[in-house]
UniProtKB/TrEMBL annotation:
A GO term for molecular function: triacylglycerol lipase activity
Gene name linked to the record: LOC113502490
Residue numbers annotated as active site: 194, 222, 308
Pfam families: Lipase
Entry annotated with the keyword Calcium: yes
Keyword Disulfide bond: yes
Residues bound to Ca(2+): 236, 238, 241
Protein name: Pancreatic lipase-related protein 2
Classification via PANTHER family: LD47264P (PTHR11610:SF185), LIPASE (PTHR11610)
Organism (species): Trichoplusia ni
Membrane-spanning ranges: none
SUPFAM superfamilies, alphabetized: alpha/beta-Hydrolases (SSF53474)
Boundaries of every Lipase domain copy: 41-361
Amino acid sequence: MYNRTSATLMLQTIMVLMDKQNSSDVTHFPNSFNDDVELERCFDIYGCFSKAYPWTEHRPDNYFPVPPEAMAVRYPAFTRRNRKIPVIFEADNKDRIANANLDPRGPFYFISHGFLEGGHKVWIQNMADALLNLEGNEGATVVVVDWRGGSQPPYGQAVANIRLIGVMTAHLIHNIYEVLGLSHLDNFHFIGHSLGAHLGGYCGHALQKRFYLKLGRITGLDPAAPHFSDTVTLVRLDRSDAKYVDIIHSNALKLIYSGFGMIEPIGHVDFYPNGGVTQPGCKQGDFTSGKVTGLSYKQVQKFVGCDHERSYEYFTESISPSCPFIAVQCHSYESFLAGNCTSCDKHHYCIPMGYHSYNIYKRLQLGGLVDTNSNIALYAMTGSSKPFCRVHYEVVIKVANSTESITHGPESGKLSITLVDRNNNKSDHVFLEHEQKFYKPGVTEIKMVAFKDTGHPPIFVIVEWKYETNLFNPMTWRLLKSPSIYVEYLKLSSIEYNTDITVCSKRNKPVVANLPTIMKTKYCKF
């Protein structure tokens, strides 16, 4: 478990480092108003912004947005013709749009960063390139919502600023709509990370309220939780802000435990990779134990932000994925891991996480299978490094109840399996459990396991047994017998390939520690 005191100290350290890192870059905004008295502030064509309820709910501080000129919001626009030198749009400059030679066929993408970031970040360029490179996107335009002038501390001020920036972005989208003579915004897709996700919600809301237009899609990448959790829909991104809203949750821990994302399902479809809380390959332990001494700001930011950042890494990979990136509808992540949601049917919809999710959702919608006023929560497992995409198998292991197995007795250890397909391509080497597990003769275990995709379902399996003795646990002692386990059979059911395979060891031989055992279907006698 996380240590609450050390976690608090860690967060305080992070905030001090953030202030130090950004002190020379913070914009000092004019303050000619008495915030204690004033409840509404207006910004010409962008309208008025209130500080009354519901903007006070679950917020320790409450600010007005600062003026547009103080934030210097920029909108660099990229197409396949101008990948390196963008056209810089302004929220209310139609001439720039008219002279940009945009392809009215679209699609149009808007990408927004979050707190303490800017439109110059590498992840934004990577996502823009992936979108422009996608087959069929010859007419695509990618617009970056660069609000770095308004994303600096204090956090509460940045939270307030995105309300105004959302309206400004709605004006820009409306102007593109008018200049290009479009009939709808179905192929406009807003992609926002953290605070940028809620910015997208404000943009979608403003388009409906001011211009009677509805965005085709908003993707929220780990929408920020502080100041937004448990608030009314007006205050945060929700499914009413676009025709389709999909969310990837990757860091839904409490802030005191270095979590920044929301846990609540707020879209039409909410994806929870690895449970949506922490992500494999992100080393939270070093920081939650308070070990931050001597580390630079960038190192602290990378460690603490790793889970939060995975949401946009997953989405970028999903544009042209290395495997189907399927997620499965289930009651909970624990239920998913237990193998309770392994079939794609009307009770457990299967939808690819990320970019291509809308294609499947639309089919379900056209078939009358989903209610657009409700939510679908889906779960998936990923790898710890790129490429993150994995394929899922329900693995059923039956420990033999034979005379030999009973005589040998229970074993404590770790089983690992490697899948081999028809082309002799091998998957990665995956342990069924992270820690040693106690296996009794006759027991059946079921577990969901994720593997790197080889391109085909397996035809046989390589099984290994890792045994570690514990001086204080007599059940792990093996003085006269070889550490081994009698596996009667393994059954692997693929979600992505919709195939089953049952394999056994040759002549019912045990899996001996540190000796790879090949298990095939033809070795099974039943």
